[in-house]
Amino acid sequence: MSMHPTDPFQSGSPNDPNVMAQPVKKSGWGCVIWGCLGTLTFAIVLMVASVFGAYYFFTGQVEKYTDDRPANVPVVEWEQEQLDELQARIDAFSEQVKSGSQDAETNGDGEIVGDDLETTDPLPVAADAPRELRLTSDEINALISANDELRGKAYVRIEESRLYGQITLPTDKIPGGKGRYFNADAEFEVSMDNGVLVVRLTSASVKGEPIPESFMEGFSQQNLAKDVYDDVETAELLRKFDKIEVVDDAIILQLREPDPENDSDETGASEESDAPVDDADSAEPESPAGDAAELIAE
Q1: Where is this region: Disordered (predicted)?
Q2: Whole-angstrom distance, CA of residue 212 vs CA of residue 285
Q3: Residue 201 falls within a domain, yes or no?
């Protein structure tokens, strides 16, 4: 009698996604630099691959679900000048994210005042461009292809507000998988719900064959991005965003607008400090502890 479960993906089996899925830990600022969800997509599909790797090991079906050659994953070639321009745009946005995490000041027009590396005077930056970053699949794939570790192994496709990921990985480390490749495709839904990034697997296939429905049920009910909040830096990053969504053919990352109460509090404090001092009692400034605690709580 076989010792393997009838359904290797059933709840409680070694391949139950609730058991096998491991946290996807990414560096916060690195997530922005690499197009955030582009790299996250690769990490999640890689997680699915690891689960299937265990499945192959337990059922002895490595050959059935792997290929003797890698899939033809598209590689997007860009000129270095194009990559530099794209990276500069991403870096400018990343600086706004980082300055936001350092309580960056805003002027009366809602523009962020950031630190300039070459001057001591802060320079205002237009709020519309750096506060929103739009990355098309072509741009994400150009960044992926520029990375030697990902080039030819991962590809992102965005169509009609849907995010798709494709990977091809060698299975040399899986028993019986030497010289073979794991080729998989997956589709995801991406949204931000009340400030929480939500990524759900809606469909997946391996070697062109759909993943068993019983296995899909386990994954489709999970937020595959929930564990990124275990990393303090990434959690801090994500709290700065108002929206992270897939729209048409691009991923949109939009920062929260500056809190207007912050500006009014600062203005009030400035006016109060300029007011003449009539007596000893008025010279005692009011403690801002209450307002500070409120801002920290937010």
Answers
A1: 1-21, 97-121, 254-298
A2: 67
A3: yes
Polymer length in residues for the chain = 298
Residue 210 domain flag: yes
pTM: 0.64
* 36-85 per-position pLDDT tens digit: 544 455 555 555 565 565 565 545 677 777 889 999 999 999 999 999 99
Q: What are the pLDDT digits (tens) for 188-224?
A: 888 888 778 888 888 888 888 887 787 777 777 888 7
Helical packing angle, 137-145 and 37-59, nearest 10°: 70
pLDDT in tens, 105-126: 433 333 334 433 333 343 444 4
Contact criterion met (CB below 8 Å) for 198 and 190:
yes
Bridge partners for 155 per DSSP: 166
Task: State the total domains in the chain.
Answer: 1
Give domain status of residue 62, yes or no: yes
Burial class from Cβ neighbours inside 10 Å (0-12, 13-18, 19+) for residue 9 reads buried
Contact yes or no for 194/179 (Cβ under 8 A): no
Please report whether residue 43 resides in a domain. Answer: yes
Helix (H, G, I), strand (E, B) or coil at 84: helix
Q: How many CB atoms lie within 10 A of CB 271?
A: 9
